[in-house]
């Protein structure tokens, strides 16, 4: 063909090019400018976001257009960083805004959000937003779905939310919102709303009576884990559509309203861990109840309530610490749907009789710490878990009976059937199809516990898998979905860990991650559970096939070179970032150079970094035989270094790992701690996804196990004083000699370890705080610790000081005296001892409270009164009235001197298969505490008479 014939074709091609470019410029300038502003402010780096028009044929990922206007922005889990631009208010036609699961999306929510007059769905779950929720949110008159949960919002709930007359879903869970629940105007005006999810905040004041009315459509009322006070209003009985009520972990008082009996649709009622009082409520009218939890309140002592036999749909009953007494009628166990009965720490007695027709669905009967004397088995033994530990029946049988042994909850799933040789590298997981990969991970939290199938949770796996396949069947290469129990007590957390495995690949692509996130966001709006995504793995690069049309058009128009340069630059940048991340993952401490401060910011000293391969070798491949314990952090393994030194390796579970900075901070802190009464940090391992701390091995376990008799160590009075002294010295060192000083925040018998000669060592610094600010005598922090040991002043002020540790140590001293848990059967040991002390009587009148095993070594209780005095000084309500730990050390040393013992001498442990109960007589020991009196007096308890 001649050149004259090619010319018309070239002209036609150029005309088509210009027509293509002209037609692509269809979106209004304000939408385009706003998107570009957001792209810059959030550092969006998505391959499909090229060209000048988001609404052209080559649409941008997450952007949906209608009539050339942007109507939806959905970018969950796409790595957004920075603050949301004020330009968000420019999208006049926007109906959906979803930026969920972008943890680095921070800052406040712009007031311009109120300009989105057509917005129907606002979803910002699991981001890092902070500051107040703007009042302007009340201007979104078309809003139906509002989810701001799992952020860091503070301040009050805006009363303007009451203007959202079309709102169906309100979820503000897991923020730091405070103040009262707003009404008139406020939430009482949301008559169409089916969901009020307001748990895990700091809401205070009473639950307003005006919040409820007969015209409300409300299904879910979730107000757990706040600071609500006062009574549950009678008006709650007006909302007859309710199916779920959760008030647990507040400080509600008064009687439970009888109007609850009007709520015949409620399946889940959880009122646990409040201060509700009076008679146990009769809830016969709540005929749909499946899950009932009234645990840990202040109800009057009562026999097992017979009205429970009328709840034919009941699956789970939880009434721990509820002052229940008497015998459980056998007919109760024949309720047809009954699965779990948890009634530990009560005064139930007599015979546990299941009857001949007990429910075939029963999985657990937990009567730990009651007074059950007999157990009647009908025909063959039941095939579910029965717990009668710490009942009289088990004092007779010991641990020879299965029901007298501690139990652990299993998720009930079959084990992986992969060949024994199947294993993955430490940074990958093994799928059910024996495929090593990086799974997409997250957490599922149930809102409605009655639907929480934690033993056969394949229903969750199937539910998620079906949603993934039905939504994007041709696009999502998913092999399998696996869920497992996240917490050792599923009744407390209602949580699962989920892993979604890719099909025939090591990891999902960036596009696949995005589509999975979209599916899970939509699924949580239609199921009784919430997702928290934690997908930290590096996605594969997304192919640019979706942009082919635009690239061809640009290429035809003569811009091929520029596009290639752009792609080359993006590719180089991505490769550099991936390489940097890989280096950081392999050796995250390589470039660590912590800054200094006047208070002595910690640095690593005499602490070794181990490789995963080394620790694997030292523990015989983390053999079960070397598994010596477990906790919320993970498992602890015993190991042996080549030098012969025994070590304890605390290996974090993947779902419970700290962030990198927090892990470094803990190592910095512990590497500066060197004292014979503090567990020494030998080293650490941070490799791939492994986080491990390596400590010296302490052979005799925890003080708690010794107090309860589980360790088999004979634990008399003199040994207890020496253990208290060792723990006090360790704590005094942390407060006054460590650099920087350290507040432990979780002193308890489980965190005091006993060495070879019963030398006490303070352990577990997971909650510890360094005092880095030289000008402050406290640290402001979220309240953490263990109930029963918590300083009440810290709990109310959220300011922790060394005196908070002193309070916990005082509780520990009372535990040493009584052998009882800090909170047992709803009674607080501090209050019980304080109310029982009579200094005019022998042993301060505490005969009935003293642990029998305290007389195990046959010694007199020398210094008993001084020990009690010192403990009560430590648990004074006000921190200023408590002694510093250095004075506590001196006080215990004085007690040992008065007993004729050397405070520097070591204790020699002895073991016994069972404690012998010595008979003793008790002499007076009631002089008040002072150094002078401790030096000048001695107290003697002769071995003649049983104190009980």
TrEMBL record:
Residues 1-24 form the signal peptide. InterPro entries: Kinase-like_dom_sf (IPR011009), Leu-rich_rpt (IPR001611), LRR_dom_sf (IPR032675), LRR_N_plant-typ (IPR013210), Prot_kinase_dom (IPR000719), Protein_kinase_ATP_BS (IPR017441), Ser-Thr/Tyr_kinase_cat_dom (IPR001245), Ser/Thr_kinase_AS (IPR008271). It is found in: Membrane. ATP binds at residue 650. Residues 903-914, 930-939 have a biased composition (Low complexity). Gene3D superfamilies: Phosphorylase Kinase, domain 1 (3.30.200.20), Ribonuclease Inhibitor (3.80.10.10), Transferase(Phosphotransferase) domain 1 (1.10.510.10). Its EC number is 2.7.11.1. Residues 622-896 form the Protein kinase domain. Residues 903-948 are annotated as: Disordered. The chain crosses the membrane at residues 549-574. It comes from the Eukaryota. Keywords: ATP-binding, Glycoprotein, Kinase, Leucine-rich repeat, Membrane, Nucleotide-binding, Repeat, Serine/threonine-protein kinase, Signal, Transferase, Transmembrane, Transmembrane helix. It holds the Pfam family LRR_1. Belongs to the protein kinase superfamily. Ser/Thr protein kinase family. This is non-specific serine/threonine protein kinase. It comes from Stylosanthes scabra.
């Amino acid at each position: 063909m001649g050149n004259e014939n090619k010319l018309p074709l070239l002209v036609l091609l150029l005309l088509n090019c210009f027509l293509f470019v002209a037609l692509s410029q269809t979106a209004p300038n304000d939408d385009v400018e706003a998107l570009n502003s957001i792209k810059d402010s959030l550092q969006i780096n998505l391959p499909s976001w090229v060209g000048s028009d988001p609404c052209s044929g080559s649409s941008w990922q997450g952007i949906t257009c209608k009539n050339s206007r942007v109507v939806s922005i959905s970018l969950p889990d796409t790595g957004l960083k920075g603050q949301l631009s004020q330009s968000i208010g420019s999208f006049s036609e926007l109906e959906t805004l979803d930026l969920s699961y972008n943890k680095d999306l921070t800052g406040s929510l712009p007031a311009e959000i109120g300009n989105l007059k057509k917005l129907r769905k606002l979803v910002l779950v699991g981001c890092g937003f902070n500051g107040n929720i703007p009042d302007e949110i009340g201007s979104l008159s078309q809003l139906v779905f509002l989810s701001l949960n799992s952020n860091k919002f503070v301040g009050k709930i805006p009363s303007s939310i009451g203007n959202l007359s079309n709102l169906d879903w309100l979820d503000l869970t897991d923020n730091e919102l405070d103040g009262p629940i707003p009404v008139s105007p406020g939430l009482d005006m949301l008559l169409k709303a089916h969901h009020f999810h307001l748990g895990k905040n700091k809401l205070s004041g009473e639950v307003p009576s005006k919040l409820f009315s007969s015209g409300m459509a409300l299904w879910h009322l979730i107000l757990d884990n706040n600071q609500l006070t006062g009574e549950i209003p009678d008006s709650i009985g007006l909302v007859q559509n309710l199916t779920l009520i959760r008030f647990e972990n507040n400080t509600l008082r008064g009687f439970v309203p009888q109007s609850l009996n009007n709520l015949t649709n409620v399946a889940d009622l959880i009122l646990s861990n409040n201060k509700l009082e009076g008679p146990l409520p009769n809830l016969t009218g709540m005929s749909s109840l499946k899950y009932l939890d009234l645990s840990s309140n202040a109800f009057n002592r009562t026999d097992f309530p017979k009205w429970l036999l009328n709840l034919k749909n009941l699956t789970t009953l939880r009434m721990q610490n509820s002052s229940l007494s008497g015998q459980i009628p056998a007919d109760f166990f024949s309720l047809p749907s009954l699965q779990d009965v948890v009634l530990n720490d009560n005064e139930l007695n007599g015979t546990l009789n299941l009857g001949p027709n007990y429910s075939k669905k029963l999985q657990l009967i937990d009567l730990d710490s009651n007074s059950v004397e007999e157990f009647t088995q009908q025909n063959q033994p039941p095939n579910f878990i029965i717990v009668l530990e710490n009942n009289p029946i088990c004092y007779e049988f010991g641990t020879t009976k299965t029901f007298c042994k501690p139990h652990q909850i299993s998720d009930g799933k079959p084990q992986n059937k992969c060949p024994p040789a199947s294993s993955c590298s430490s940074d990958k997981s093994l799928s059910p199809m024996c495929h090593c990969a990086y799974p997409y991970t997250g957490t599922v939290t149930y809102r409605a516990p009655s639907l929480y199938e934690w033993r056969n949770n394949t229903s969750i796996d199937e539910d998620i898998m079906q949603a993934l396949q039905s939504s994007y069947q041709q696009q999502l290469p998913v092999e399998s979905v696996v869920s497992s129990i996240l917490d050792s007590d599923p009744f407390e957390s209602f949580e699962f860990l989920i892993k979604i495995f890719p099909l025939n690949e090591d990891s999902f692509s960036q596009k696949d991650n995005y589509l999975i996130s979209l599916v899970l966001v939509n699924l949580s709006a239609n199921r009784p559970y919430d997702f928290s995504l934690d997908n930290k793995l590096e996605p594969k690069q997304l192919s640019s096939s979706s942009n082919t049309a635009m690239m061809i058009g640009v290429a035809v128009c003569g811009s091929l070179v520029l596009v290639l340069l752009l792609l080359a630059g993006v590719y180089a940048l991505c490769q550099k970032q991936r390489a940097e991340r890989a280096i950081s993952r392999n050796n995250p401490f390589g470039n660590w150079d912590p800054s200094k401060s006047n208070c002595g910011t910690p640095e690593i000293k005499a602490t070794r970094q181990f490789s995963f391969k080394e620790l694997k070798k030292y523990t015989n491949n983390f053999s079960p035989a070397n598994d010596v314990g477990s906790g919320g952090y993970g498992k602890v393994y015993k190991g042996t270094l080549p030098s012969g030194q025994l070590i304890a390796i605390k290996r974090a579970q993947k779902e419970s790992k700290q962030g990198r900075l927090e892990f470094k901070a803990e190592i910095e802190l512990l590497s500066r701690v060197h004292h014979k009464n503090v567990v020494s940090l030998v080293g650490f391992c941070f490799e791939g996804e492994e986080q491990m701390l390596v400590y010296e091995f302490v052979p005799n376990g925890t003080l708690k196990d010794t107090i309860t008799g589980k360790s088999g160590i004979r634990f008399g009075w003199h040994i207890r004083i020496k253990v208290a002294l060792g723990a006090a010295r360790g704590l005094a060192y942390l407060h006054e000699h460590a650099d920087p000083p350290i507040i432990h925040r979780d002193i308890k018998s489980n965190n005091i370890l006993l060495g070879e000669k019963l030398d006490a060592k303070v352990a577990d610094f997971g909650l510890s705080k360094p005092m880095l600010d030289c000008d402050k005598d406290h640290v402001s922090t979220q309240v953490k610790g263990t109930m029963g040991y918590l300083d009440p002043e810290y709990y109310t002020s959220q300011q922790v000081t060394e005196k908070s540790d002193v309070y916990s140590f005082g509780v520990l001293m009372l535990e040493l005296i009584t052998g009882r848990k800090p909170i047992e059967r709803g009674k607080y040991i501090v209050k019980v001892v304080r109310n029982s002390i009579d200094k005019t009587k022998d042993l301060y009148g505490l005969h009935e409270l003293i642990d029998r095993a305290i007389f195990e070594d046959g010694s007199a209780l020398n210094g008993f009164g001084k020990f009690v005095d010192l403990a009560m000084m430590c648990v004074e309500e006000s921190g200023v009235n408590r002694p510093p730990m250095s004075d506590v050390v001196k006080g215990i040393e004085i007690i040992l001197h008065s007993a004729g013992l050397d405070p520097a001498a070591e204790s020699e442990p002895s073991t016994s298969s069972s404690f012998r109960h010595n008979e003793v007589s008790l002499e007076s020991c009631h002089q008040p505490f002072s150094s002078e009196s401790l030096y000048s007096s001695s107290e003697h308890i002769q071995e003649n008479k049983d104190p009980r």
